From TrEMBL, chain A:
It holds the Pfam family Pkinase. It catalyses: L-threonyl-[protein] + ATP = O-phospho-L-threonyl-[protein] + ADP + H(+); L-seryl-[protein] + ATP = O-phospho-L-seryl-[protein] + ADP + H(+). Residues 1-10 have a biased composition (Pro residues). PROSITE patterns: PROTEIN_KINASE_DOM, PROTEIN_KINASE_TYR. This is EKC/KEOPS complex subunit BUD32. Component of the EKC/KEOPS complex composed of at least BUD32, CGI121, GON7, KAE1 and PCC1; the whole complex dimerizes. It comes from the Eukaryota.
TrEMBL record, chain B:
Belongs to the KAE1 / TsaD family. It comes from Mollisia scopiformis (Conifer needle endophyte fungus). It catalyses: L-threonylcarbamoyladenylate + adenosine(37) in tRNA = N(6)-L-threonylcarbamoyladenosine(37) in tRNA + AMP + H(+). GO terms for molecular function: chromatin DNA binding; metal ion binding; nucleotidase activity; tRNA N(6)-L-threonylcarbamoyladenine synthase activity. Its main location: cytoplasm. This is N(6)-L-threonylcarbamoyladenine synthase. The lineage of its organism: Eukaryota, Fungi, Dikarya, Ascomycota, Pezizomycotina. Residues 34-314 form the Gcp-like domain.
Length: 275, 349
C-alpha cells in the first residue's frame, strides 16, 4: 500500500515577534529615549544619552539566550563583553581609531562606548559609485578620492594589526567615516560637496575581535575585507591594491602578511569535504 | 514517476522507493528500509567491514524494498545512488550495486550528493519553504542557505563533525553503538545536572569540535580515576551522565549560535535541521527557543528521514532526473569529497 508522507508539525510555529526587552540601564530616566540602531544575531545596539545629557553614547547589549544553559550563557556573555572592551581599550591606548569605552557591566551584558558621528563606508561608497555612474564618469578616471579612501582604510587596518589586534569581521559596514575634526583638516576639505568619501576611518564592532599577532589571522582579516569589497562594491574592487599598498607601509611585518594573503586567497575558506 | 534510492555513505545501508504522483502533489514513500552496521562498544566502524556489510545486504534489502513497495522493475524510472561525500569503500560497494541494477533492469542512473539528499527530503517532508539548513551528522556539520541555484555553505566545522565528536566520546565511555552512539549519549544526558566547563569554539559562522573532544576525554579519565569527584559549588557527585550533559549543552549551544548568525545574515526566520544529529530532541528544543525569539519556526524530521536513508537519495535523484539530469554508466563513480555547493540546483527558482 502507498503510505503518504505525513508532514510532522513544526516544533515551534509562533509568528509574532517578541521585541527583546531593554536592558535595565536603559529603563532609567535620560534626556532622550533610547533608540535601537541595529539588531544582530548576538547584540542590540542602542543610542542613548544615559551617561550625560550632552554625551550620546552607543550601548551594546547582549541579551541572555534562553536556549543556552544559564551558567554557559553568563560565562559567554561575560567573556565576550570583557574581551571586546579589552580590545577597544588597547586600540585606543595605542592610537588606533576606535570608539572609546565609557562604561560596562559584564554581568548585565552591556558595554557603553563612544558614539561615532558619520556613516559607514558601505553607504558612502555605494552613494559615491552611484553618483559617478549618474554623472557618466568613466570608470578609471577621477578616482583620486576613492584611491585616497582605500589608502586610509589600509592604513587604519594596518595600524590595528600593528598593535596586535585582529578584527575578525572586517567589512565595509564595520568601517565608519567620521567627519574630520574642526581645525585639523589635514589638507582635506569637504566644501565642494564631492567629499562624501572624506573623513577619518574609525573601526567599529569588535564583537569577533581577538588579540593576535599571527600573520595567518591578519591575512584572513584582509581576505575577509577583500571579499566584502568584492561582494558589495564590485566596481571598487579594482582599487584593492591601493589599500594593500597603504597597508604594506603601515607597520613592520606588514609585507609578510601580504605574502601570506596570497596563500589564503589560493585556499579560500573552501575546505575539501571529507565524509 | 517512481525512483529507487540507494544509500551507503557510512554505516547504514538504505534502500527507499519514492513516487512523485505529479505537480503539486506530495511525494509518496513506497518503502524505506535500512540496515545498520554496528561496531562493538568502544570501537568505531571501519570502512572495510562496513563495505562488506553493505555488499552482503544489498540484494536482500533491494528485494525487500521492492516487495514492500509493491512495484515491479518496470515501474521504476531511474536508479539513484549516493555519489558522495562519504567513506570510500562503503560508497564503492553501493555504486557497484547501483550499476548492476542499472544494467540488469536497463534503467538510467542518477548520482546524488548525500547532503543535497538530506536537504531536499527535509524540505519535502516538513514543507519548509526557504529555510536556513543546519546539516549535522557523523561526517558533516554545515549551515546552509540557498541562493542562486546553489546550496551555499555559510558556516561549517573546521575540523571534525559534531556527530563524530559525540560518537568518539561514546567510544571513550564504551557505551553501546546500538541503535546509535549519539542516541545513547542523549539518554544518559537526560540524567545529567552539573554543567562542567568545556571550551566553546565558535569563530564567526564556523566552529570547531576537536578541542572539546580532547577536553571531555580528559574529564572522563579524571572521573574514572576519581569516582567520588564532587562539584565544588553544589557538592553533587559528578557522573558520566553529567559529562554527556555538559558535552551536549556546549556543542548544541554552538550549533544554535552559528545557525542564528546565518539566519540574521540572510534574513530568514525558518530553520530546517537535517542529518542524524538532527534527531536529537535537546538540539531541536534549543533551536526552537532560538527561533521563537526571532519570531520564526523550526522544522525537523524524525529518525526515518534524519538518519541516513535511501528515500532521500531517491527523492533528490528523482527531482534532478525530472530536470533532465543523468549519470551515464561510464561516469557513475563515487567520491569521498563532494561539497554541497558543487551541485547545480536547477530545480529551484
Amino acid at each position: 500500500m502507498e503510505t503518504p508522507t505525513v508532514p510532522p508539525e513544526p516544533i515551534v510555529s509562533q509568528t509574532s515577534s517578541t521585541p527583546a526587552n531593554l536592558p535595565q540601564i536603559l529603563t532609567y530616566p535620560s534626556k532622550t529615549p533610547p533608540q535601537l540602531i541595529t539588531q544582530g544575531a548576538e547584540a542590540l545596539l542602542y543610542k542613548s544619552t544615559y551617561l550625560l545629557p550632552t554625551l550620546p553614547c552607543a550601548l551594546k547589549y547582549r541579551p541572555s539566550k534562553p536556549y543556552r544553559h544559564p551558567i554557559l550563557d553568563v560565562r559567554l556573555t561575560k567573556h565576550r563583553i570583557l574581551a571586546e572592551a579589552r580590545v577597544l581599550v588597547k586600540c585606543r591606548k595605542e592610537g588606533v581609531p576606535v570608539p572609546a569605552v565609557y562604561a560596562l557591566d559584564e554581568s548585565k551584558g552591556w558595554l557603553c562606548i563612544e558614539w561615532i558621528e558619520g556613516e559607514v563606508v558601505r553607504i558612502r561608497l555605494n552613494e559615491w559609485l552611484r553618483r559617478r555612474k549618474e554623472a557618466g564618469t568613466e570608470e578609471g578616471s577621477e578616482e583620486e578620492e576613492l584611491v585616497d579612501l582605500m589608502g586610509r582604510i589600509g592604513s587604519a587596518v594596518g595600524k590595528m594589526h600593528g598593535v596586535g589586534i585582529v578584527h575578525g569581521d572586517l567589512t565595509t559596514s564595520n568601517l565608519m567615516l567620521r567627519p574630520w575634526a574642526k581645525g585639523v583638516m589635514n589638507g582635506h576639505s569637504s566644501e565642494d560637496g564631492k567629499g562624501i568619501l572624506e573623513g577619518e576611518i574609525v573601526l567599529i564592532d569588535f564583537g569577533l575581535a581577538s588579540q593576535s599577532t599571527a600573520d595567518e589571522d591578519r591575512a584572513v582579516d584582509l581576505y575577509v575585507l577583500e571579499r566584502a569589497f568584492g561582494s558589495t562594491h564590485p566596481r571598487a574592487e579594482s582599487l584593492l591594491k591601493e589599500m594593500l599598498t597603504a597597508y604594506g607601509k603601515s607597520f613592520k611585518g606588514a609585507n609578510v602578511v601580504l605574502k601570506k594573503l596570497e596563500d589564503v586567497r589560493m585556499r579560500g575558506r573552501k575546505r575539501s569535504m571529507l565524509g | 514517476m517512481i525512483a529507487i534510492g540507494l544509500e551507503g555513505s557510512a554505516n547504514k545501508l538504505g534502500v527507499g522507493i519514492i513516487s512523485h504522483p505529479g505537480p503539486g502533489k506530495p511525494a509518496q514513500v513506497l518503502s524505506n528500509i535500512r540496515d545498520t552496521f554496528n561496531a562493538p562498544p568502544g570501537e568505531g566502524f571501519l570502512p572495510k567491514d562496513t563495505a562488506k556489510h553493505h555488499r552482503s545486504w544489498f540484494v536482500r534489502l533491494v528485494k525487500q524494498a521492492m516487495i514492500e513497495a509493491k512495484v515491479s522493475t518496470r515501474d521504476i524510472d531511474c536508479i539513484c545512488y549516493t555519489k558522495g561525500p562519504g567513506m570510500g569503500a562503503p560508497l564503492q560497494s553501493v555504486a557497484v550495486g547501483a550499476r548492476m541494477l542499472s544494467l540488469l533492469w536497463e534503467k538510467e542512473l542518477v548520482g546524488v550528493n548525500h547532503c543535497v539528499g538530506h536537504i531536499e527530503m527535509g524540505r519535502e517532508i516538513t514543507g519548509a519553504h526557504n529555510p536556513v539548513v543546519l546539516y549535522v551528522s557523523g561526517g558533516n556539520t554545515q549551515v546552509i542557505a540557498y541562493a542562486e541555484q546553489r546550496y551555499r555553505i555559510f558556516g561549517e566545522a573546521l575540523d571534525i563533525a559534531v556527530g563524530n565528536c559525540l560518537d568518539r566520546f561514546a567510544r571513550t565511555l564504551e557505551i553501546s553503538n546500538d541503535p546509535a552512539p549519539g542516541y545513547n549519549i542523549e539518554q544518559l544526558a537526560k540524567k545529567g545536572k552539573v554543567l562542567l566547563d568545556l571550551p566553546y569554539a565558535v569563530k564567526g559562522m564556523d566552529c570547531s569540535f576537536s578541542g572539546i573532544l580532547a577536553c571531555i576525554d580528559i574529564l572522563a579519565a579524571d572521573l574514572k580515576a576519581n569516582p567520588n569527584w564532587r562539584d565544588p559549588i553544589t557538592n553533587e557527585v559528578i557522573t558520566t551522565a553529567d559529562l554527556c550533559f555538559s558535552l551536549q549543552e556546549t556543542v548544541y549551544a554552538m550549533l544554535v549560535e552559528i545557525t542564528e548568525r546565518a539566519m540574521a545574515h540572510v534574513g530568514s526566520s525558518q530553520v530546517l535541521i537535517v542529518g542524524g544529529v538532527g534527531s536529537n530532541e535537546r538540539l531541536q528544543q534549543m533551536m526552537g527557543l532560538m527561533a521563537r525569539d526571532r519570531g520564526g519556526s523550526v522544522f525537523a524530521t524524525d529518525e526515518r528521514f534524519c538518519i541516513d536513508n535511501g528515500i532521500m537519495i531517491a527523492h533528490a535523484g528523482l527531482v534532478a532526473y525530472k530536470t533532465g539530469f543523468r549519470t551515464p554508466l561510464e561516469e557513475s563513480t563515487c567520491t569521498q569529497r563532494f561539497r554541497t555547493d558543487e551541485v547545480f540546483v536547477n530545480w529551484r527558482d
